[in-house]
Write a structure and sequence with these properties.
Chain lengths: 150, 421
């Protein structure tokens, strides 16, 4: 049907919809140590990432989000993928994910994230998937301004 | 050379009772392709229309046989290029019924046309002067005025709209006042499809001596436009939204008003003489067209206008009204779908939201089924804010669209709803 590696419809069915219907860790926590806000002006997606740190570890990763299914699913998967990791390990995962979707460093993702990486074949949707990750990186960097995908 | 060569292939004349759309579609090579395994249903003409071979050929012919710089050379090619460029200006004048080609300024598009007015007319505005726009404007008829307000302390006033997406004319009458220096309003809303009562707006503004700029980007290819009947002072539109090339557009300006505008960009073509003791400027419209213009764009635009006129603007409007009525009914039967923009007087734009599915996801699922629509804020973020939504999915129609394509879209929407359920 599609000349792309993964039909995006299949990607939605297999991965995206599971998370966008029942997103993990989607909440505003009572307390947090770091936070950042991200906005994709093109489609209006918004995400606010909250981090609870324990020493060097991301003990609690949560977020509030509004947007398309891909951005919601990506935020949900991200919160699972980096929870409990050290800051440097989390940064590595962010680099791997964004590197994979930009096509610069493909093949470093595993499992669900690798499946979501199929979005790279659909240029207009890549920023939907990367927004939560860029926002997480901004939270780690303690960036004050809203991050955009522009 | 440029315009006479334009003929409709397959005898795509209007049939009794409507257009021969299948014949017309033969003129558009791009429409005949598969997208993701489905026949392309191109329902995004409000973003940009497609081009018939007649336009593509006019551009190719120009570059193959006739190109040189205009208004300069003494040689044959320069004469030909000038004839083509100025011929397109005359074709444009006739198309919108301007009095003179002095009133037809070629620009890069609607956006540049509006910016030209803001940058020139705007020079005579000061702190406290007001510009009146509407809540349904495209960013290109908001931001140039906001920039002017920042520079000169001018105030932007905005006429609100009702829930159906219609301009509140009583509010317009309240907001237009002693300090209003310009009314700048869209003819047709790109996000909602609303057709504004421009003639009434112009009459009301003129009764107070206030000039009116009409953003015609979404109207020009979809209904007959007569600037004298409308009596507007400026009318701006883009080639690429009327089957012409990108990068060319038109600012119509009433000659008596254009005469009073200061020069805009400086450079070649807009001058008569240049010396270090002073420069004298060229006459209209050249005074407002600095530098070598988009000659091939004008050639394509002229061919596009010839093409539209051969089909007939009345028949185009009738066909698109039929498509809109058909689509509105079919979309209205889709569960959870809400049309955004339900004005009594609408052009071929159907903006909508579906419960629980983000517009971008709708756009992606439709693309997977060969259907091209726009999803997002449509460069009209204040409109989205008015409705409290991040964006809409938008199908928009042109004369080359069919009911079958609408069926294809609605079928894909039903699949999307099942998928997201």
């Amino acid at each position: 049907m599609s000349d792309k590696t993964t039909s995006l419809t299949e990607l939605y069915r297999q991965t995206v919809l599971n998370h966008s219907r029942n997103p993990h860790n989607c909440r505003r926590p009572a307390n947090w140590d770091r936070e950042a806000e991200g906005h994709n002006a093109l489609c209006g997606d918004k995400v606010h990432v909250y981090l609870g740190m324990r020493g060097q570890a991301l003990a609690d990763v949560s977020y509030e989000a509004s947007g398309c299914a891909i951005s919601l699913a990506s935020a949900s998967m991200m919160s699972d993928a980096v929870a409990g990791k050290t800051e440097s390990a989390a940064r590595q995962t962010i680099d791997d994910f964004i590197g994979d979707l930009s096509g610069l460093q493909p093949g470093k993702l595993e499992g669900e994230l690798a499946a979501l990486g199929g979005v790279r074949d659909y240029p207009s949707r890549i920023r939907c998937a990367t927004l939560p990750w860029q926002t997480l990186r901004a939270a780690l960097d303690a960036v004050q301004e809203t991050v955009t995908t522009e | 050379m440029n315009s006479n060569a334009t003929t409709l292939t397959s005898g795509a004349a209007a049939l009794a009772g409507g257009l021969d759309v299948e014949a017309i579609r033969q003129d558009f090579p791009i429409l005949h392709q598969q997208i993701n395994g489905y026949p392309l249903a191109y329902l995004d003409s409000a973003a940009s229309t497609q081009r018939p071979v007649q336009v593509i050929d006019a551009i190719r012919r120009y570059y193959t046989h006739d190109h040189a710089n205009v208004h300069r050379g003494v040689h044959t090619l320069s004469h030909r290029a000038t004839d083509i460029y100025e011929g397109a200006r005359e074709t444009t004048r006739r198309f919108i019924n301007a009095r003179s080609t002095r009133e037809i300024v070629f620009t890069r598009g609607t956006t540049e046309a509006i910016n030209l007015v803001a940058a020139t007319l705007g020079q005579r505005l000061g702190a406290g002067d007001e510009i009146l726009i509407s809540a349904m404007e495209h960013h290109s008829n908001i931001v140039p005025w906001q920039m002017l307000c920042e520079q000169r302390g001018t105030i932007l006033r905005v006429v609100p709209i009702n829930d159906r997406g219609e301009l509140l004319l009583d509010e317009f009458e309240k907001l237009i006042g002693k300090r209003t220096r310009l009314v700048a309003i869209t003819h047709v809303s790109n996000a909602l499809g609303t057709v504004n009562p421009v003639q009434q707006i112009v009459a009301s503004a003129h009764a107070r001596g206030i000039p009116v700029l009409i953003d015609g980007a979404q109207a020009i290819a979809h209904q007959a436009v007569d600037v004298q009947a409308m009596d507007c002072d400026f009318y701006a539109f883009s080639g690429h939204k009327m089957c012409g090339p990108t990068g060319i557009g038109v600012l119509y300006g009433r000659e008596s008003l254009l005469e009073t505008l200061p020069p805009w960009q400086g450079g070649g073509d807009m001058i008569l003489t240049v010396s270090f003791s002073g420069t004298t400027y060229n006459e209209l419209p050249y005074r407002l067209e600095a530098g070598t213009p988009h000659i091939a764009g004008a050639a394509g635009l002229g061919a596009a206008i010839d093409y539209l006129q051969k089909i007939g603007m009345e028949d185009i409007a009738r066909h698109e009204a039929d498509l809109l009525a058909y689509a509105s009914q079919a979309l209205g039967e889709v569960p959870g779908l809400r049309l955004v923009g339900t004005a009594a007087h609408k052009a071929g734009v159907a903006s909508f939201n579906i419960d629980g599915i983000h517009p971008h996801d709708i756009g992606t699922v439709l693309d997977q089924h060969g259907v091209a629509i726009r999803a997002g804020h449509h460069c009209a973020m204040p409109v989205m804010e008015r409705y409290g939504i991040p964006g809409t999915a938008r199908a928009s129609f042109a004369f080359y669209n069919t009911r079958t394509e609408i069926d294809q879209m609605v079928g894909a929407l039903r699949l999307a709803i099942r998928m997201f359920a």
